[in-house]
Amino acid sequence: MIAADIIGPARRALIFTTVTMMALGAAFAAAQFVDLRALPNGESVWLKPLRFALAFAVHAATLWWLSHLTLRAQAQDRWFAWSVWLQAGVIFIELACIGVQAGRGVASHFNYETAFDRALFTIMGIGTGGLFLGFAMIMVGLVRKPARGLSGTAVVIAMAFAMLGSLAGVAMVMPTAAQAALLNAGVRPDVIGSHLVGASTDVKVPFFAWETAAGDWRVPHFLGLHGLQAIPFVAWLLGRAGGARAHLAVWLAAAGYGLIFGWSVLETLAGQSLFRPDAVDLAVILTGVVTYASGLVLAVQPRRFAAGA
Prior knowledge:
α5 (151-173) runs antiparallel to α8. By secondary structure, the chain is mostly helical. The chain has 11 helices and 2 strands, in the order ααααααββααααα.
């Protein structure tokens, strides 16, 4: 009963956050047709708030799902609940900052033009650290009091991916070589940091606006964070199944996903885009997909495989 009292309000907060973010996402989508202002890159001023609102809705819903997938002990509940309150607060503050900048018609990220812009972007940077800390708190709870079956292991792996994905955000806010040169010369540029590694082009991935001909830190950032769904999904498919094959399913999925994530980091560092793959890229991606899919196959048919063992 004590555990339920600890986690219950946090779960309700996640439901509230999910619904609110979806409603705000709908509002931002509609705003694009009413307010036709655009940023210098050609995007609607309301497109970034829309993307973040949807991403936050998915994130909050995922945390709600993971809380039901793993929680077995009061110690887990406590760490998970603290993490939920921290991350929910970060979500609302981050979207508020992005929404304010959209309303002003200016960029929210990397914007150092005025003291106000710098303050908001600094707050968002601190928020990213809050999400990182939230992932670590969930891991602590599961390590101290492991969940039954493989769900706890899968979520710990997923949190590790999410933390690595968060670190990609740190790479984005570091000054580029040109910006660093200006700072060393005593000149503060209006923009500090970039998601781009290489030369930008006009060809972007629709909606996400990822670069298709250069490295883009948003790709490994996206892949790392969505390990939160990709790895626990395998444990969810397994249910209460145990044994060596069940463990193999989770680790195969983690290895395949990790291969793709790791390759995305290396390609980004090299200024290459995964959206224009060469033969080596295709081989690595295919290997990762097949390995992850093998884990899924073992997960959806554990009894069949066990019977044939």
